[in-house]
Specification:
Distance between the termini: 10 Å
Number of helices: 1
Mean pLDDT: 93
Strand content: 35-45%
Order of helices and strands: EEEHEEEEEE
Number of domains: 1
Strand order of the largest sheet: 3-8-6-7-5-4-9
Low-confidence stretches: none
Oligomer: single chain
Length: 110
Amino acid sequence: MTFNKLTLTAMLYDNPSARDFASMHPLDLKIEDYGRNEKIVYLPRKLTEEGSGPFGDERPGDLCYFKPWGNLALFYADYRWDGLIRLGLFEDGFDPLLVRGEYPVRIEHI
């Protein structure tokens, strides 16, 4: 993911939702602040929810899908929400997520 001349690299997990997300790449969308612990990106369509289930080890750096709204949730602080599917984890930290604001974002495979 690239926005505001910053780059984030995430390793996607091997689950149906993450594979569905990967099949959509490349994407040119918008990333924006939401609350005080995450940035969000609205996807062009909802992802499959097949194989989703609760998890209890939430942590900053998680890349998730929020089922009710159909958006990505990129967490940079502690969180605990129902309705999430974990898609992956940011590999080199998540400092770019701390930059406040709304930006065009490019999401692609590397």
